[in-house]
Write a structure and sequence with these properties.
alpha/beta; 8-stranded mixed sheet; Peptidase_M28; about 40% helix; Aminopeptidase
Length: about 325
């Protein structure tokens, strides 16, 4: 009996140690501590700079847009997030010969975190860095929501993944943070990346998560509940849609509105942002969007009108989704 009790106590102790070890492992690999680094305060600070008059509406090829790309480059350098192009070179030149007549040379901005186990599989998180510049009457179109909100969201997501990497939890797959230019004049920056100079092979690109306007509330959602329109999540991969839904329910529980995902929707938003250049190459996509509002493409699209608590939660949703896609065993299946 004494021998039995000794064995029983040992078994209980071993089980307790295993449970403790498992709990510790789960805690370490949870994305939640890193999601908490994404804050409304930081988003607001960056957006008030990025959508300031100093950047002159970020018109493609114009001086304000050049200031914008320098701001993005300096952010990545400050946070020790490298470029996949070459050390210190974060700019992918988009030449004027590729752009509409009269447009000056411009740049996409690229940064990345290399995957630990599947570095040749690439998850892209994209947003456009440009806006419509200065109106003929001299008014500056700051583009705080379009797409300053998506731009600063990517910066926060990159910072969160870098914090995880520094803690020893780098993603299994490589994550490319892609800021594309010339969206407002025909999705040209993303088209240049996909059609002319993909830094990573498109056949190894598993998904594009595209963020274009996620800082405001449209007329349909004035009830105060946080929401996002999702477009394209089920177009090429039902599995991607299922992953997206599961991640949302587990972590943030936003209202996901699929109104604009309808093939018959007259707005045709699926074809109107940078994810489409990935989708046309059979890469699964999700387009995150808050809908249009009265300040769309007007000088009144300013940073004081952004709902920063909503922006924080929406950014965290994209981060959680990216975490799952970057770390799951298999890439999502293409239907």
């Amino acid at each position: 009996m004494k021998h039995f009790i000794t064995l029983l106590c040992a078994a209980i102790l071993l089980n307790s140690c295993n449970s403790s070890s498992q709990n510790k492992t789960v805690s370490k690999t949870s994305p939640e501590p890193y999601a908490k680094t994404i804050s409304a305060e930081s988003l607001k600070k960056n957006l008030y700079t990025y959508a300031s008059d100093e950047f002159e509406g970020r018109g493609t090829g114009e001086p304000g847009q050049k200031k914008a790309v320098e701001f993005l480059k300096n952010f990545y350098i400050a946070h020790e997030i490298p470029s996949p192009i070459a050390e210190g070179n974060y700019f992918q030149k988009v030449p004027s010969s590729f752009l509409p007549t009269g447009t000056k040379d411009s740049e996409n901005v690229l940064a990345y975190i290399k995957g630990s186990e599947k570095p040749d599989e690439i998850l892209v998180i994209s947003a456009h860095l440009d806006h419509i510049g200065v109106s003929s009457n001299g008014a500056i179109n700051n583009g705080a929501d379009d797409d300053g909100s998506g731009t600063v969201a990517i910066l926060e997501i990159a910072k969160a993944f870098k914090a995880a990497e520094k803690a020893g939890h780098e993603p299994k797959r490589t994550i490319l943070f892609l800021h594309v230019t010339a969206e407002e004049i025909g999705l040209q920056g993303s088209k240049y990346y996909t059609d002319v100079e993909p830094i990573f092979p498109l056949e190894h690109t598993v998904t594009d998560l595209n963020i274009d306007m996620i800082g405001r509330v449209d007329d349909k959602h004035k009830d105060g509940k946080n929401y996002l329109y999702l477009i394209g999540s089920d177009k090429l991969s039902k599995e991607l849609h299922e992953v997206s839904e599961a991640v949302n329910k587990k972590y943030v529980n936003l209202e996901l509105d699929y109104t604009y995902n309808d093939e018959n929707d007259p707005n045709r938003f699926y074809y109107r942002s940078d994810h489409y250049n990935f989708a046309k190459n059979n890469i699964p996509v999700i387009f995150y969007f808050n809908g249009t509002h009265e300040d769309y493409h007007r000088p009144s699209d300013t940073p004081d009108k952004i709902n920063y608590p909503f922006l924080e939660t929406r950014t965290r949703l994209v981060f959680y989704t990216a975490w799952e896609l970057a770390n799951r065993e298999n890439r999502v299946k293409l239907d």
